[in-house]
Amino acid sequence: MEKRQSKVAVTLTNRKNERQDKNVKKVTALETKDLHVYYGSNLALKNISMPIYKNQVTAFIGPSGCGKSTYLRSLNRMNDEIQGCRVEGSIFYKDFNINQSSVNVFEIRKNIGMVFQRPNPFAKSIFDNVAFGPKQHGEKNKKVLQEIVEKSLRKAALWDEVKDRLNKSALALSGGQQQRLCIARAIAMEPDVLLLDEPASALDPISTSKIEELIMELKKDYTVVIVTHNMQQAARISDYTAFFYMGDLIEYGETRNIFTNPQQKQTEDYVSGNFG
């Protein structure tokens, strides 16, 4: 147990994004209040109230089945696609409650993009994967589409690797490249927020490292929320961490405090490896 705690402490000490100006006012990008999520009669998330801060990386940790992915999907109404799922409470984006039946969920997802656990590129060219969203929203100018594709691939740290084969199938890319392509596809819609559901869990260590470096770079332009089973990863790349357990939000705060000075015994037990 001591060895594991020591590794996390070293990770936190060496984090590139560790230094923060404490005088800078935190701006809320998203916020939930009294959020409950049901799958049929099963209450999966219980009364979650939490802000997510702009241009920060927020990590959700906790054992499998604790509700962290359910909460992530709530933030851009992806749970609407699950039969029998019901979401109660408020989800505020730009001071507007997006958890209302009158809301256009496609517009919400344009501003709050999502990348899933396993890379899911379309069976199209690399170019058409990235251009897909803008085309669907009416962009027809080829020059504009070319600019969007290049800009998005550059931001996803993929341009130099694929610029000479944009017309080749995206399915020919490696797993790590496919995941970065999916991030580029989300970026092409110019979102404010990127939701990442365990984006590196199916990748090798080298590809995982590239994704982590990318996430730390992306927070300059986006608010990033990531679900991860890897506590070392949360310690390396996140500014804030939320610990979920059995549908409850046990503790939420700056990552350094969650890992080195947790306020709840359950949090301490989890990050020290006593369970989970």
TrEMBL record:
Q: Which Pfam families match?
A: ABC_tran (PF00005)
What are the record keywords, sorted? ATP-binding, Cell membrane, Membrane, Nucleotide-binding, Phosphate transport, Translocase, Transport
Keyword GTP-binding: yes or no? Answer: no
Q: Cross-referenced Gene3D superfamilies, in alphabetical order? A: P-loop containing nucleotide triphosphate hydrolases
Is-annotated flag, keyword Chloroplast?
no
ABC transporter domain boundaries: 30-271
GO molecular function annotations of the record: ATP binding
How is this protein named in the record?
Phosphate ABC transporter ATP-binding protein
Source organism: Heyndrickxia vini
Query: Gene name, please?
Result: pstB
